[in-house]
Design brief:
The chain is an alpha+beta fold. The chain has a domain of 72 residues. A hairpin with a 4-residue loop joins strand 1 and strand 2. The N and C termini lie far apart (90 Å).
């Protein structure tokens, strides 16, 4: 008697659930990414009003405070999947709503005081 033929691989589906407290999400308009040998850290943050001043050498500078809303740590093996998922979603978004434009045609973000 022979062993049964192996069937197709089962389809894997993630059943993603979220708690009611997290459903609203958090706003972020800034992302800082850094890494160690074992993980990537993504700090999603909201920027605050810019502060004009000078740096340590007295040169003019603009400081932009950013408050971290959430920090996510992921293994390096997951980063390409994250990038692929974001790219796929951007492609579908633009196919539905049109090209995403950057606010480069408006007034400068940090105009001179002059």
């Amino acid at each position: 008697m022979s062993a049964p033929e192996p069937g197709p691989d089962p389809q894997v589906r993630f059943d993603v659930q979220i708690t009611p407290e997290m459903e609203a999400g958090v706003y972020a308009n800034f992302l800082n990414v850094w890494h160690t040998a074992h993980e990537f850290t993504l700090d999603f943050a909201s920027t605050m009003p810019a502060e004009q001043g000078t740096d340590e050498l007295g040169a003019p500078s603009v400081r932009i405070p950013a408050r971290v809303a959430v920090r996510v740590k992921v293994p390096p093996t997951l980063m390409f999947d994250i990038i692929r998922a974001i790219n796929d979603n951007l492609t579908r978004y633009e196919a539905t709503f049109g090209a995403i434009s950057r606010p480069s045609d408006g007034p400068p973000l940090y105009p001179d005081d002059a």
